[in-house]
Amino acid sequence: MMITILLGTLVVIRLMSVSQMASVLSGEDEDVAQKRDNSMNSIGMMLFMVIGLALMVYMTIKYQPFMLPVAASVHGAETDFLLNINFAVIGVVFFITQVMLFWFVYKYQHNKNRRALFYPDNHKLELIWTVVPTIVLSALIVTGLREWNKMTQGHPDDGMVVQVYGYQFNWITRYSGPDNKLGRSYYKLISDTNPLGIDYSDPASKDDIMTKGNEMHLPKGVPIQFIFNSRDVIHSAYFPHFRTQMNCVPGMDTRFYMEATITTNEMKGITKNEKFDYVLLCNKICGVAHYNMKMTVVVDEPAEFSNWLKGEKKIIDAAPTAELEQNNTTASTVNTEVAL
Amino acid sequence: MEVRDNTHSGHAVAHDVHDHGHDDHHHDHHQTFITKYIFSTDHKMISKQFLVTAIIMAFLAMGMSMIFRLQLAWPDETFPFLESMIGKWGKDGKLDSGFYLALVTIHGTIMVFMVLTGGLSGTFSNLLIPLQVGARDMASGLLNMLSFWFFAASSLVMFGSLFIEAGPASGGWTVYPPLSALPQAIPGSGLGMTLWLVSMVLFIVSALLGGINYVATVINLRTKGMSMTRLPLTVWAFLITAILGILSFPVLVAAALLLVFDRSMGTSFYLSDIFIGGVPLDHTGGSPILYQHLFWFLGHPEVYIVLLPALGLASEVISTMARKPIFGYKAMIGSMLVIAFLSFIVWGHHMFVTGMNPFLGSVFVFTTLLVAIPSAVKVFNYIATLWKANIVLSPAMLFAIGLVSFFITGGLTGIILGDSALDINLHDTYFVVAHFHIVMGSSAIFGMFAGVYHWFPRMYGRMMNKSLGYLHFWITIICVYGVFFPMHFIGLAGVPRRYYANTAYEGFDQLININELISVFAIIAGVAQVIFAFNFFYSIYRGRKAPQNPWNSNTLEWTAPVEHVHGNWPGPIPEVHRWPYDYSKPNAKEDFIPQTVPYSQTPESNRPGDF
Ligand code: HEM
Ligand SMILES: [Cu+2]
Ligand SMILES: [Cu+2]
Fold first, then answer.
1. Considering its fold, how many domains does chain B have in total?
2. Ligand 3 centre from B341 Cα, in Å?
3. ipTM of this model?
4. Ligand 2 center–CA B317 separation, angstroms
């Protein structure tokens, strides 16, 4: 609506000068800006600024409900808080600088009888506007890095280990079972029946569980240690609601620690949307169906989660005997530390 | 005088030095069509060749963006014209999902490299360096000509790759392996990717030939009196840009070369443990992440290669049209140097979620946010230049102001993306698309428009139509904000980039209205560029004849005759006596004093410290 008005106003303003076009094209007018051009365009600048800023505020409020709901993880709540602080800071800077920019253009329109102020520099001013941003940025850097360090370090290694495995164009999840260790895997062991290439001779693989169906379950309030892998190209495991993302890179392990704080059911209430579901999306271009590479994520209460997990079959129970007996001399471990 | 005329001996075109004494005839009369328009070694002609090529490429890339905007806004519609336009990729009026990625890839590559690197640096470094430093031509006319022809070849190969059977490269403009290395992973990684690599190598050759020439010319061929601290900020920007390019592009060659080896010679620089198309590959021991380090070592400086020339052009336009010296000339140079230096040590901010060591991530956060300081200084200096100015709003000035506005808007969101803890959730979403289109795409495009409107009289000896210029400006700035600002919201809703359709997640359905709004703006913006193209080509032939110095500017290029002559000045090269920003000097007769006016002629306005 307002955009139509904005456009309309401008079109009218412009039409007036377009009417001069004929004379301009026939060469009766100067193509250097005249007094009239200056005043019209500087009024345009003011209108643009005022309407533009108003629209930005309006849109920010209007689109609020479309944006991600409250973060559903421990670190996500903290980064959201940080994000809001950052937005507040840059919002203030944005308003001040844009208003000054457009206001000066309006205020200091050309006037033949006036001279601009010859003002080539002022070291004190320059010092101020070097030092002030430095202080503000230092504050943002310090708060940001504190959060980053908290997220990436100081985590007990004993979170529940869950593997998220990407391939063109889907996801597989593997739970590490009671030993909380994933069995070794090797890409040359991959087959239709062994999509993760698990080396069954590794005792750690005996209790591993792989989810069937396109759904991943996570317990609420339990720290999780995700291990990400890919079979073919780089994928990126993106859980928007948990504010969690990590690339899945063939030939290497990447990790992310997080703890979900809101169950799917609770989130349905928060968003007032009965159909709400968490989602895992692929966020690194990976091929023609990249846009369709997703998995539903369900956060359960811990008890519900254990029940669900009990109902899932162990991988080894479903594996064909021929593969179980295969002599895996070629197998090597892939669970090496994260490379730089 | 003799000393400076020596510079002329660098000319590749054989041509009598003494001719320059004659004002009354042009030196082009013994040139054929071929040497004048095609294999020209004259920097002014080469600059126009770059510009026209870039405009054509820009229209192409813009057309692509309109096609994928149609898809994003109206995923369920069919557009029968697509089938007639792109054949099997638009079967039954539906855009193919693989071709969507191809369009995105080629759109990004053309915009970043062909339009905003080749088009911007190629056009304006070529036009302005010799004219503003007071040189007869570039240090080497031959290399300069080659630079253009490598650029043209590169553009042609990129364009040609659209027509091959399997489609062009489709892995995104960053072409990360393994996707870009394996044709099994995506059809575009076959011949299309090979052509992409060939095109890029040709492009890099062009950029290096150009860059070396620009640096050599600025260092060696400055006219008498043109000390480094009297150079216009445009020239400083071009110089720093050229140095950035020379230092970073070779790394991209290395990255590309290793990719070529992996693709066709079975090496494993970037590949390891891959199972694809039902079979395990033999590659082992490589790291896809290595490619990203190499790519972004160029990739980040590249955004400043795109941006700095635009900022340089804006500095010059703003100071001239505000009739006021640029505020903090030395601080402007200093901040460009600091930005250039920092741009080499921030590349990791593109890789926070690759599993990078968190400590290394912290270092990149720190260096990245440091870049905000010199950037802020530049913005404040622009604003201070406008304070108490006497502003003439030519179309070029409007575009320069638009540039500053975009630079603020896009730069500020960079502070968020540079914060690793926040980037985890925003990386590769539409928030990033919004950020870089505003700060790099739109700023640089606006800088380019400012440059074209401002220096068109110098290029073609005619004026561009001002009213059409205003119309073009207003539609464009409204639409650019209309297209890219709402993308922030889409990103904050969690929508990944490079998605053919946002149907994967039910929560995205409500965004369809925003997507329609964006696409409407994008289509209007696209149509508005026709106004520019019309104005540009019409004015070349029919524009009003330009006066010698239409904007009452101080710099040297406006002392050269309107009709181009080979060697730029018919007589001796003018000497420089002052810095380029003596606008509205107190007590001066006029509100500008060209660089060629000695202090001895302006006793009334001289100030202590001027000498
Ligand atoms: C006509 C105006 C433009 C429109 C409507 C537009 C639109 C878009 C959109 C929607 C995307 C993302 C598509 C996706 O991720 O699925 C995109 C990608 C991109 N655009 Fe533009 N764009 C425009 C101009 C520019 C300019 C001036 C630049 C110069 C920097 C540019 C550079 C890029 C790049 C580098 C990408 C990323 C390509 C990739 O993901 O590999 N675009 N554009
Ligand atoms: Cu994927
Ligand atoms: Cu960067």
1. 1
2. 13
3. 0.91
4. 46
